[in-house]
Design brief:
By secondary structure, this protein is of the alpha+beta class. The chain has helices at residues 5-24, 30-37, 43-55, 72-81, 90-100, 107-122, 175-188, 194-206, 213-227, 247-250, 253-265, 267-277, 325-348, and strands at residues 59-60, 69-70, 125-131, 138-145, 150-157, 162-168, 233-238, 283-286, 298-307, 310-320. Helix 2 packs across helix 3. 33% of the residues are buried.
């Protein structure tokens, strides 16, 4: 259906109001819009269109004599209409390139560094929902006694995911016994996802005549103890202080406190993002769409990363509803792409031998 001149003018005015509000954090009046649009529209014409947009629930007027500000619905219409991606500045592109060079012996440090780099670029709070060994395929298992009844269990997964846990066991274990257990696990079960590895051991226990019964039973016990405290995923938050530089939170300490509390608890936020990642595409949640108490004045942009077409986690920014959605989306998707490249590179190296 062709867009009429009135609809085009209406959409242009809505876009101009939202982008002006993003820039100034102040209610937007008709005179400012008239100046910015430079289309020969009178302030009276613009006021009429703004009144229509308000009736449709896309704008609201915080005070009788004030200009208008976008509603959640107005932001949603705006975000859905963004067809072109923002072109990053040369400085931003260069700093994104520096993220691609980040590396370290542990994936945990890598994700922390990436989150910090994105927060400095975006000047928003950033988050990374990162995989743990529970979501991985096991490449190697190492067992080492660190006491009479204490054992260090190191699980090395694909994508350089490592988990190490000290477990307390009922029966003493010698170094030779630990080496035998590790040899059994590495010979029989490496290459299986964690869930299948445990299921395989449980099936082996049913074969009561199996000469390896003792090894199987003890291996299963140790792995279950090691995984008992291993989370499904890690959640990193960086740059939360940037949120409190925003007028929305700087002027309202109670609102800022509730926001900080939700970031510290984060269980609800992680569940929401985990659900969003099922779509395997960038998600933008605005205001009340976040559906978490204390975050109704925030929005987030979440992009997935992974390897071999498998989503392993997500990275994004959390900021006020008045964030620069066009630029933030470009940054988030750019960093998510770099994380995917880094994981893919790390995955290919062991197979080069």
């Amino acid at each position: 259906m062709a867009v009429t001149d009135f609809e085009r003018r209406r959409n242009d005015i809505l876009e101009t109001i939202i982008e002006a509000y993003i820039s100034t954090a102040s209610p937007v009046g008709s005179e400012l819009i008239s100046h910015k649009m430079r289309q020969g529209l009178s302030s009276a014409t613009i006021r009429n269109v703004m009144a229509e947009l308000e009736k449709e629930g896309l704008l609201e007027q915080p005070h009788t004599s004030a200009g208008r500000v976008p509603t959640d619905r107005g932001y949603r219409v705006y975000v859905n209409s963004l067809k072109d991606t923002c072109r990053l500045t040369p400085d931003e592109a260069e700093r994104l390139g520096q993220i691609a060079q980040l590396e370290g012996p542990e994936l945990e440090r890598f994700f922390e560094d990436v989150g910090q780099a994105l927060s400095r670029l975006s000047r928003q709070a950033t988050f990374v929902l990162a995989p743990t060994v529970r979501q991985s395929t096991i490449k190697q298992i190492e067992l080492m006694p660190v006491g009479l009844r204490k054992l260090l269990c190191v699980l090395v997964g694909q994508e350089a995911i490592i988990a190490s846990h000290v477990v307390e066991i009922e029966e003493p274990i010698s170094r030779d016994e630990a080496l035998s257990l590790a040899h059994f696990l590495n010979t029989e079960l490496v290459g299986l996802p964690i869930a299948e590895l445990l299921q395989s051991l449980e099936r082996r226990l049913l074969a009561v005549n199996d000469s390896l019964y003792y090894l199987v039973k003890r291996s299963l016990t140790i792995l279950e103890l090691a995984l008992a405290t291993e989370p499904t995923e890690h959640f990193y938050v960086e740059g939360a202080a940037y949120l409190f530089e925003q007028p929305e939170f700087r002027k309202d300490p109670l609102k800022a406190h509730e926001l900080l509390r939700q970031l510290e608890l984060h269980q609800e936020l992680v569940m929401r993002m985990r659900h969003d990642l099922l779509a395997q595409e960038t998600t933008v949640r605005i205001g009340r769409e976040v559906a978490i108490d204390g975050l109704s004045d925030c929005s987030y942009i979440l992009a997935p990363f992974g390897i071999h077409q498998t989503v392993l986690g997500g990275i994004g920014v959390l900021g006020p509803r008045r964030m620069d959605y066009r630029r933030m989306r470009a940054l988030v998707e750019g960093v998510a792409g770099l994380v995917t490249e880094a994981l893919s590179h790390g995955e290919s190296e062991p197979n080069d031998e």
